[in-house]
Amino acid sequence: MTVLQACEVAGVEIPRFCYHSRLSIAGNCRTCLVEVEKSPKPVASCTMPALPEMVTTLHFGKTTLKKGAWSREEDQKLINYINRYRIWIWSEMPKAAGLLRSGKSCRLRWVNYLMTYFHIVGMGPCYWKTFTNSSFSTTNYCNSC
Q1: How many other CB atoms sit within 10 Å of the CB of residue 87?
Q2: Rounded to two decimals, what is the model's pTM?
Q3: Does 44 share its domain with 87?
Q4: Three-state secondary structure along 38-81?
Q5: Which residues fall within 8 angstroms of residue 22, CB to CB, at 6 or more apart?
Q6: Domain that holds residue 44
Q7: Each residue of 53-101: pLDDT tens digit?
Q8: Is 34 helix (H, G, I), strand (E, B) or coil?
Q9: Per the structure, how many domains does the chain have?
Q10: HTH myb-type domain location, by residue (predicted)?
Q11: Residues 78 and 19 in one domain
C-alpha cells in the first residue's frame, strides 16, 4: 500500500494526475508530492510505500504565491520595506517584507508603479540618479543576477 492509497483510506485527498488504481504506478506528474518526516526532499506519494508510524505532510511547492492584482496593503508593505532597509535583492525581498509574491513581481510592481509615485512624492532627483545607476542598467535586469 502506498502513501496515496493510505491517505485515500483515511479520507485525506491528495491531488494527482497520473495515478489510477487500475494502471501501473509511474509517479511522473509529481503533483502528489508529500513531505515525509526525516526525508531530505519531497517524495511522490503514489510511489512511496506506507510504513507504520510514518508522518507525512502535503507539499504544495510554489502554489502559495499570490498572483494577480496587488492590494493597497501589499503596496504599503513593499514601500515600507524599501523605505526602511533600502535592500534591492529582489529574490529575497518578498519573504523579508512579508509578501506572498515572487521577487520578479515585487520588482515589476516597484519599477512600473510605486517608484514613480515615490519619486513624485519627494525622494528627489539625487535618489533617482543613484537608484538608476547602482541598481539597474535597464529595468529588465536586477543587480543580483
Answers
A1: 12
A2: 0.41
A3: no
A4: CCCCCEECCCCECCCCCCEEECCHHHHCCCCCCCHHHHHHHHHH
A5: none
A6: 1-64
A7: 888 877 655 446 777 888 889 888 888 888 888 767 778 888 788 888 8
A8: strand
A9: 2
A10: 62-118
A11: no
